[in-house]
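INTERNAL AUDIT FORM
Audit reference: QA-55
Scope: verify that the stored structure record matches its stored sequence.
Auditor: D.O.
Record contents follow.
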Amino acid sequence: TMVGFFGRFMYNFDGKYYLSASLRRDASSKFGQDNKWGTFPSFSAAWRVSDESFMENFKSIITDWKIRGGWGKVGNSSISDYLAYSLLRQSGMYQFGGSDKSVVSDGNISNSTLGWESTSDINIGTDIQFLGGRIGAEIDLFKRTTESMLFTVPTMLHTGFSNQQQNIAKMENKGLEFTLRTLNIKSKNFNWNTDFNISFVRNKVLDLGPERNPLWGSTGNPVDTRSDIGKPISNHWGYVSLGVYKDWEDVKNSPLMLSGTNQWERSIPGDAKYADLNGDGIIDANDKTVIGNPQPDFVWGMTNNFKYKDFDFSFQLNGVQGGDINLRMFRRNVFGGNLGQNNVPRFYFDNYWRPDKTDAIYEAPSRKNWARIFDTTTKNIEDGTYVNISNVVLGYTLPRVLSQKLGINNLRVYASAQNLYMFTKYHGYNPEANTFGNESKTQGADDGGYPLARTITLGLNFSF
């Protein structure tokens, strides 16, 4: 249940100066008794520079120009119900008086101070149009700081529980967004316009609570994402791959995986070889490190629309540059316990170790690899860069004179293709896949996301 109050003030002077402010006060039953309410103010201002007298001489070039800025705070209550309360659960049965009786115990730890996650956003931007609107641009600089982030975190085991919902973290996102719209050609028979946008975002964890412990992802065995103060959230965590042990001489002169344990798990020629980062001669969990950042360098999109007489054509591209993806599907299916029994991808088949190919990239098929089925390494961290031809449309509109003879007001035939082709070096089905959705602690994971379907459509639009 939620309840809230809202107020807003807006002011416009002479169509050139704009002010607005708002205030929200909300409460949610999802939060603890001591922290149900949140206050979320915002304000903004804008100045239409193009309407000033000193811009009169530039009207033929700068048609419209506005500078704007603002600050605001919004709240997030997207957690499950009752996490702030101690709930009873049936945890067993016992015999009493000749019949079974239920044992009831606490189901989770209450948190009376559990409250709103809040995000403060500072934005400075400008909107400008040139040459009578033929060229338009929008530029935005922003900084978003999220505080009191809602996470499920480990607790002391003596409490009887393994975790609790808390407000513990603080994170910053800052960046630049740019949009460009152009009317490239406008004539009697031919028109062409273009829309282009690109955004750059840099993410950093600012705080992780009083103990400053790393924040681990919520899935995996072991967990393969880690968030540290001063670094992007949800970095990939694992071993640095050095290829494979080429021969016995290489095994003897290199650190070994789990040295001193069951010989079934020890290294042999053809096994995966990892960097011994702490220099103790043993490859174990102490040699794991940050091996990838799921945050992309930039994201972009472009649309072009053409019209020649009664024909129209458009295509849309979108893409991502950078952003590391943990191809967990490859790790499990190829390096799991079925290695050597199931079909494998071509890129593995052509590059696995065998006695006559000791310079291979990947380890040899071996049932012993079950011991490392869940280990994340740099060999299954891949670049998520792609360019996708996401939409193409070709249409023809029958001239009005002809369509009216058929008793139709308007008639258009068209063909369209969605996800026509994707350019990428990523080995998974779809570089846009994100297995755990909006789970901020576990980003950039692909457990075998379904490939984008290519859809071809033939259509007819008409009206009477």
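Auditor finding: record pair retrieved intact. The chain has a mean pLDDT of 88.
Action required: none
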